[in-house]
Amino acid sequence: MSSITYLEAIRLAQQRALKEDPRVFIYGQDVGVFGGAFKATKNLSKEFPGRVLDAPISEDAMVGLAIGAAVEGMRPIVEMQFADFSTCGFNQIVNQAATLHYRTGIPCPIVVRLPSGGTPGSGPFHSQSMEAIYAHYPGLVVMTPATVEDAYTMLLEAVALEDPVIFCEHKFLYYHLKAESLPATVGEALPFGKARIARPGRDATIVAYSAMVHEALAAAEELIQDGYDIEVVDLRTVRPIDTDTILASVARTGRLLVVGEAWPWGGVAAEVISRVATEGFGLLDAPPQRLNAKETPVPYHPALWGTHRPTASSVANSLRQLLEL
Amino acid sequence: MPAAKSPKTKRSQIKSSQGNSADTAARELLRRAYRTMLEARLLEEKLAALYRSGKIVGGVFLGRGQEALSVALGVHLRRGDIYAPLIRDQAGRLAFGDTILDTLRTYLGSSLGSMRGRDGNIHRGRPSEGYHAMISHLGAMVSTVCGGLVAKRFRGEKSAVGATCIGEGGTSTGSFHEGMNMAAVENLPLVVVVANNQYSYSTPNDRQFACSDLLSKATGYGVVGHRATGNDLLDCLGVIGEAVAAARRGEGPQLVVADLLRLVGHGEHDDASYIPEAMKKSPLGRDCLELARQSLIEREWLSKEEAVSWHEAVEKEVEETSSKVLREPPPDPAEEDWNAFASPSLGRNL
C-alpha cells in the first residue's frame, strides 16, 4: 500500500538530518510544538528538544540567523511558511547567503525550504513559484523535487551541501503524491544536479520540474492516442541546470517544449530554451516552445487558477502544436 | 519574557585616581584605545589621500569623529566573540584584530587581502574568526550576529558575546527591528551600538524618526538600554564595557545609543555641507581624538612627548604599509575561477 506522502518524505528527511547531524536545527514560524503550518515538522521538536525552534514573523531575521549560525559551523534549515513570504527574507538570501563564499571564502550551508506553487483557492500570496528569482543569483542552489523519493533524498543532499540551497517543495504534491518506501541511500539513483528522464520517448521532449512533471507525464499519456511517444525530462534542480541531459534528449527527439508553473518572463523555461538554442540549434527540427502560467498574479478562484497554470490538457495542446510545426 | 527594562544611563566606570591594579588596567585600556583611535584616524587620512589621488576606486567611508565610540566596543571584545562592524568602525575593527595592512589591501584591491579584490573598502572581514564582513544593506548584520550566538549556544559555549554597530538611520530598517526583536526573544548576549551622528547621509534626524529618544527603542524591544556620550572616550569605554559585561553575564541584549557627529562627509565624495556650522561648533562637534588625548595627558597617563612619538610611529607604519600594498599584485581576471559556489562538485557546470 502506498503510504509515504511527499510531505511526510520532507518530514522524514528532516528527522534523519536532525538524527544524523548534530549541526542541524530547524527554524521557522510555528515549526515547534505546532509542527508547522503544513505539519512538515510534526513531532520533531518533541523528538529533538531545543533544535526545532519557533521564529518570530521575521523572514529577514530568520535567514540572517541561519547565515550567522552556518558561519559558526551549523547546518540550519529555515522553513518559510509559504514560498511567497520569502520575499521578506530576500535581502538576506541573495545579498548575504549567496555572496558569502565568493566574498570571504567561507561557505554558507543553509537550506531555505519554500512551500511553493499553487493549490486551489490559495490566491496571489500563497501560490507563487519563486525558483527563477533565486536561480538568477550566482551562489544559490535551487532544488525543485517532483517525486516523493526526490523530496526525501534531495532535502538530505541540500543539508549536506556546502552552499545555500533554496528548496522549492510543491504544496500541491504534499498530499497528492505517495510512494511505498524511501531510498535508504542518498544520491545513489542520480547524483546531485542531474536531471532524470521521467519518461523516455522519441517524438518530442518536454522539460519540466516540480508539479509540472506530473502534468507533462499525463499529457504524454494523452498523446499516445495521437500516435506520439513523448519524452519527459525532470530537471530536479533548476540550478545547477543539467544542460547535457536536456541536449541529449533534444538530440533524440528534435522538438522541445518547456513547461513551468512560474511566469514565463526571464524564467527557467526561458533559460532552458536559451541554452538549447545556443548549444543545440542544429538538433532542433522545430522552434522550441514554452508553456508557463498566465501573466497575471495567481488568481484565487479554482476555475481561474486551473486555467492560469499549465495543466495536462494545455500541455497536450501545446505538444500537438509543436508536433505540427 | 521579562518585563521591559527601562533604559538607564551608565556613567564612566573609569576613575582617575592612581595606585592600584584596577587603575593600572584602566590606564592600559585607555592608552590602548587611544592608540587604536590614532591608528584609525591616520590610516583613514591616508585612505582619503589615496582616494583623492585616484589610487582607490569606488568609495572611501571614514569614521572621523566616531573613533571613540567605535574603539570602545572593539577593545571590550575578545577572541571567541563575534563582531560585525559597520561603515564607520575602522577603530573598532583594529581593536578587534583587523590590521592596517589588510585595510589597505582591501581598499587598494590587492589580491593578497582578505577580500582578494572581490569586495572592497568597508566590506571586509574574516567570518571564520568571528569578524563578519558587512553587506551594504543596513540592519542585516544584526540577525547574522544573532545566528552566530545561537550556534555558540548550541555548542554550549558560554560567555561569548556578539556585537554590531549601526547608525541612527539604520534603526529605521526592518532588518534592524527584526534582528533586535529576535535577539530579545532568544535572550542572546548581543550588544548593538547605535552611533546617532544626526545625519543619515544628508537626511537629518527629524526626517528619520519621530521618537524623542532613540534609546526608548530599548524599552520597546525589552532589552537593556545604555546611553553614552559619543565623543567622550572615557564615557564610551565605561558604558560599553558595562553593556558587554552584562551581555557576557547572560543578561540578554544590550542597546547602546550615543550622540555624536561625523566630522567628515558620508564618503569622501561628500562635503557634508548640509551639516550646519552651529552644530559643528556645538559640543557634539568636538573631536573625540583630541579630547581623548587631552584626557590622557591630564591624567598623566600619556606624556606629550609620547603622544608625538605615537603619532610619528603610526604615520610611519601607515606610510610604509601603503607603499608596500601599492606594489602588490591586483587580482588577475584570468586566474579567477569565476565560481560563486563552495561545493567542488558544482564547479562551472551551471
What would your notes on this structure say?
Chain A has 325 residues and is of the alpha/beta class. In chain A, α1 (6-20) packs parallel to α6 (148-160), α3 runs parallel beside α4 and α9 (243-253) crosses α10 (268-279). Chain A is built from twelve helices and 14 strands. Chain A has a seven-stranded mixed sheet with strand order 3-2-4-5-7-6-12, sandwiched between helices. Chain A has a five-stranded mixed sheet with strand order 9-11-10-13-14, with helices on both faces. Helices cover 39% and strands 17% of the residues of chain A. Chain B has helices at residues 21-52, 67-74, 90-96, 100-108, 140-154, 174-185, 216-221, 233-248, 277-281, 288-298, 304-326, and strands spanning 82-84, 162-167, 190-196, 199-200, 203-204, 224-229, 254-259. In chain B, α8 (233-248) links the parallel β6 (224-229) and β7 (254-259). In chain B, 52% of the residues are buried. Chain B is an alpha/beta fold and 350 residues long. Chain B has a single domain (21-326), classed as 3-Layer(aba) Sandwich (Rossmann fold).
Relevant terms:
heterodimer; A: 325 residues; alpha/beta; Rossmann fold; 2 domains; seven-stranded mixed sheet; 17% strand; globular; B: 350 residues; five-stranded parallel sheet; two-stranded antiparallel ribbon; 7 strands; disordered N terminus
Please give the structural blueprint:
The complex is a heterodimer of chains A (325) and B (350).
Chain A: E1 4-5, H1 6-20, E2 24-28, H2 44-47, E3 52-54, H3 59-71, E4 75-79, H4 90-104, E5 111-116, H5 131-135, E6 141-143, H6 148-160, E7 165-170, H7 171-176, E8 178-179, E9 196-199, E10 204-208, H8 212-224, E11 230-234, E12 237-239, H9 243-253, E13 256-259, H10 268-279, E14 289-291, H11 302-308, H12 312-324
Parallel strand pairs in A: 2-3, 2-4, 4-5, 5-7, 6-7, 10-11, 10-13, 13-14
Antiparallel strand pairs in A: 1-8, 6-12, 9-11
Helix pairs in contact in A: 1-6, 3-4, 8-12, 9-10
Chain B: H1 21-52, H2 67-74, E1 82-84, H3 90-96, H4 100-108, H5 140-154, E2 162-167, H6 174-185, E3 190-196, E4 199-200, E5 203-204, H7 216-221, E6 224-229, H8 233-248, E7 254-259, H9 277-281, H10 288-298, H11 304-326
Parallel strand pairs in B: 1-2, 2-3, 3-7, 6-7
Antiparallel strand pairs in B: 4-5
Helix pairs in contact in B: 1-2, 1-3, 1-10, 1-11, 2-3, 2-8, 4-11, 5-6
